[in-house]
């Protein structure tokens, strides 16, 4: 199985890079992982709702350049479906059974994901109604993907 993360913005903090490296290593037993970072847009403090849409659209166009027709797209969206870890594991397993071996997760920038990307998404997933920094969220998503594979394989993992 191929898992791709398309994320807006680059990791800056060493401790987050180290965590991503650790989960990348752990996931190598279960899938091929590819992480694509696209440039984020600077958001002025006094940005209007229209300015924010323009920023999301620019970031969305950068994301679209990396999306292929054979990818099953999961957009991380506050309005998406919330799944427990076990259900998330089942979700990954069912996609594999249906022949979707290229799953792509999209993490937007600080303003979220463009309408165009949300429209293109096959599934919208929400981890929490809380807001997290997208750099930290990358680590959280990788951890849950790892946990999902462990559950799927019937391997022990701390609950």
UniProtKB/TrEMBL annotation:
Subcellular compartments: Cytoplasm
The domain of life is: Bacteria
Principal place of residence: cytoplasm
Keywords from the UniProt entry: Cytoplasm, Methyltransferase, rRNA processing, S-adenosyl-L-methionine, Transferase
Question: Which residues does S-adenosyl-L-methionine bind?
Answer: 108, 127-132
Q: State the Gene3D superfamilies in the record.
A: 3.40.1280.10
Please list the GO terms describing molecular function: rRNA (pseudouridine-N3-)-methyltransferase activity
Q: Which residues cross the membrane?
A: none
- What EC number(s) has UniProt assigned to this enzyme? 2.1.1.177
Q: Which CDD domains match?
A: RlmH-like
Write down the chemical reaction(s) this protein catalyses: pseudouridine(1915) in 23S rRNA + S-adenosyl-L-methionine = N(3)-methylpseudouridine(1915) in 23S rRNA + S-adenosyl-L-homocysteine + H(+)
Its EC top class is transferase
Q: Which GO CC annotations does the UniProt entry carry?
A: cytoplasm
Query: What family is this?
Result: Belongs to the RNA methyltransferase RlmH family.
Function text: Specifically methylates the pseudouridine at position 1915 (m3Psi1915) in 23S rRNA.
What NCBIfam families does its record include? PRK00103.1-3, tRNA_RlmH_YbeA
Q: How does it assemble?
A: Homodimer.
Record PANTHER family = METHYLTRANSFERASE, RIBOSOMAL RNA LARGE SUBUNIT METHYLTRANSFERASE H
Report what the protein is called: Ribosomal RNA large subunit methyltransferase H
The organism encoding this protein is Clostridium tyrobutyricum DIVETGP
């Amino acid at each position: 199985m191929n898992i791709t993360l398309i994320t807006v913005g680059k990791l800056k903090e060493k401790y987050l890079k180290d965590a991503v490296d650790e989960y990348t290593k752990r996931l190598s037993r279960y899938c091929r992982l590819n992480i694509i970072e696209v440039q984020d847009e600077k958001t002025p403090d006094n940005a209007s709702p229209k300015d924010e849409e323009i920023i999301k659209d620019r970031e969305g166009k950068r994301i679209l350049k990396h999306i292929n027709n054979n990818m099953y797209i999961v957009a991380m969206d506050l309005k998406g479906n919330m799944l427990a870890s076990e259900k998330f594991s089942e979700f990954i397993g069912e996609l594999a059974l249906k022949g979707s071996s290229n799953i792509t997760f999209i993490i937007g920038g600080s303003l979220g994901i463009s309408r165009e990307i949300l429209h293109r998404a096959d599934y919208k997933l929400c981890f929490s109604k809380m807001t997290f920094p997208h750099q930290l969220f990358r680590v959280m998503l990788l951890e849950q993907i790892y946990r999902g594979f462990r559950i799927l394989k019937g391997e022990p993992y701390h609950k």
